[in-house]
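Entry type: protein chain
Record version: 2
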Amino acid sequence: MITLGQALNRGLRAAMTRDPRVVVMGEDIGRLGGVFRVTSGLQKDFGADRVMDTPLAESGIVGTAVGLALRGYRPVCEIQFDGFVYPAFDQIVSQLAKMRARSAGRLALPVVIRIPGSGGIGAVEHHSESNESYFVHTAGLRVVTCATPSDGYTMIQQAVAGDDPVIFYEPKRRYWDKAEVDEEAPLSAAPALHSARTVRAGRDLTVITYGSMVHPALVAAQIAEEEGRSVEVVDLRSLAPLDLPALLASVRRTHRAIVVHEAPTTLGMGAEISALLTEHCYFEMEAPVLRVGGYNIPYPPARAEEIYLPDADRILEAIDASFAY
C-alpha cells in the first residue's frame, strides 16, 4: 500500500530511469522534495542537472521548459500550487499549446506541467483553485488528472512519454490516500492515458466526475445503493480529450447523468459534458443532465471551504432531483 504522493514519486522515478532526457524542474522540488514531497529523493539519486530547483518565477519555469523541449529534452515542471500557474499562462497558451500546430507538426513539445489542484486542505488564498477549464478550452493541450495511487503511477509515466504538452492535475487532498499499486505490471498493460474508467458499475444513473470528487461520488453511490438506487461512477481521468464513447455508453445504459466537479459550474466541465450528452443522448434520457460543483464565487477562506466544496450530501440531493423527473 502506498499513497498517491508516493505513487507519483515512483512514477517519475521510473520515467527518469527509462529516459535520460527527462528532467524535473520547479520551486523547492530538489533538496526539499516539493511542498507535498512528491519529488522527494529524486535530486539525490539523479543529480541537480536533472532535478532542478528554480527561481520563484512560473513564467520562467515554463518558458525554460519550452526551450528544453525544442532541444530534445522532456521537461516535467511542477507548479507549486494551482493558483500559482497564472504568471505562466501566456507561456502555456501562447507558446506551449500552439507551437506544434504552427510548425505543421515538425516540432514536438513533450512538456508535462504538474499542478496540485483543488482544495480541501485548509490552505490560504491562491492555494485551492480548480482552474482546469482554462486549459481544457485551449486547443493543443492535453489535460489529465489522477484520482488513485495506481492511476498516478501509470498516468504520470504515460504523460512524460507522449510528444504533446500535458497539464497534469493532482488532487492535493488525495495525496495521502493509500492503495495497492502493481509496479511490476508493464506500462503497456495500463489503461490508455485518455480513457475514462468506470470505478463503480450501476444501472439507474451515471455520476461523471474526476480528481478530488471521485471519492465523494463513490460514497454517495454506496449510500444510494442502500436506498435502492444503483449508481454508476465514471472517472474521466482525461479532460482533454474526453473519452466521449465511454460516457455515451454509460448514459445510454442508465438514462440519467450527473456531472460532479469541484470547480464552479459556470463554463466548467459539467457544462461541456451536459451539452455533449444532450446532443447525443437526448431521446434516451429520462431527466436532464444535472451538475454539482463549486459555487460561482472566488474560493472562500479555509474556515468556509467545507460549505463550498461539493460532498456526498450534495451529490445525493442531485440524485434525488434526477429521479424526481
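Comment: The longest strand covers residues 257-264.
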